[in-house]
């Protein structure tokens, strides 16, 4: 069985091969051949991930696939390889499974695009990088995948680079993520200093022997949190993700659902042994997650772009995941990664189907009633909306409930911290239900607000796009049953991930308390949906328009001004400095050199006059020189 599991090491290589073929030969292939090549490469990776899953499930043991020694210095040796355990295998299934559906969907969505083959080459490279990240057995190899994901996001967000706004969005994502990468590098340096190793399993084995709560372990945890905040778009490094909507919509689905933004959650879960002995860092993780979830949810309410609403939703949902791992419920955070991968990919691909049908229109105020004309897209979008809102019996309900309950009962936060974070998450859950009802109603329900020229062209997307929607909708319903509350049934996902992550500190409330917490989650979800129904269906949006000029509404539309603040502090300051340097270069350096160049001919002209070749002129010069010398001697004598 171990030999079969080792074959999973080929999954990144297959995706890389797809990128190689499309990158070098894609332009000579006729559409849809590049899309088929890219889809098959990722689909084959999914098959290998399934083999690894059943292999690890059969033995219960992790499997290491070594590639040999990478670096030897004295007694230190760094060997590179893949570590396949319950956590990495589950992430592989998410990346390749959802990634495969996004690739297939892209065959129809990108039809006719001049960069068709380039798109699939970059998409395959993205998947390969993410697989390396989650399969790596050392922080060094993980960092290779980490950077690969960053480069691919830059390429795909700025895919339509001829539009300056798209290119700027790609650069913004790249630059903001470099801030987090500095945290990763510093964390690696400190990890090596403390543990003497960069092998993840060695560090995890040594962590419990370290001094509990020591400053150095807290520092390592905070630095890894900084890295996670960059990749997973958490406060204060969340500003790049809304602009990432500049790329093709399937790219948004891949980044938001299956790959990049979940990397930070994975990093904290993978280093859970370190966080288990650094409670200060763990509590900080929880607070960052909760505050990000709340701020992003409020920001989502005021957006009008169909994809931008979902972007802030992603920031908020990842905040839930970060809060879970910060509470020590690593399994709950990864469980939400799993359910979120399905319903968020479905939401983005549904938005892409709408944009495809409307010829590029993305303003939800110019839509409405599309569910009647795009039945598959509308129905699947409704399922995803209810799932993310936390409606019972759908996947989002189970994973979100697991997070809020774990936060409430966590012993890591101490005192009343758990209850406060629980309350904030419940408020956020209600806001989520509200803005997702708004998103669905303005797009798929209510009166049609399309322009006539657009309305005549509305059509359901082709089957190559709708079939992935249906599959994701089924997953959005069913995957949640892997994590049923423990007091109701066996929690399979918790038991599975318990082998690969540290155990959190939790109190165990009574069954009655757990039922109350469960019912509270249901109540909050329905309050949010009911409020959305009252505002947009009963009140026809009149209250929303009246409140549109309030300070809170303005803060929501501007995402609390964080982006504008960063622009003033960093972008405008940098631009001003660059303009000052340019002025200095142009006015002082350039003109100064030009002025000097004019002095040289003047001096040359004077010297030329002295070198006339006439004896009388030389004699006269000698006379002047002698006179000057006599005058100097006389002056010296007088001064004495």
Plain-language structure description:
With 640 residues, this protein is mainly alpha-helical. Strands 1-2 form a two-stranded antiparallel sheet. Strand 1 and strand 2 form a beta hairpin. Helix 4 packs antiparallel against helix 11. It is globular and about 115 Å long. The mean pLDDT is 90.
Task: Give a topology summary.
Layout: H1 2-6, H2 10-25, H3 33-59, E1 63-73, E2 76-84, H4 86-109, H5 116-135, H6 139-157, H7 164-195, H8 200-206, H9 215-231, H10 240-243, H11 249-258, H12 263-270, H13 272-276, H14 279-301, H15 306-326, H16 330-357, H17 375-389, H18 395-409, H19 417-444, H20 452-455, H21 463-478, H22 492-497, H23 511-538, H24 542-546, H25 551-557, H26 562-610, H27 615-639
Antiparallel strand pairs: 1-2
Helix pairs in contact: 2-3, 2-5, 3-4, 3-5, 4-5, 4-11, 4-16, 4-21, 5-6, 6-7, 7-9, 9-12, 9-14, 11-16, 12-15, 12-16, 14-15, 14-19, 14-25, 15-16, 15-18, 15-19, 16-17, 16-18, 16-21, 17-19, 17-21, 18-19, 18-23, 19-23
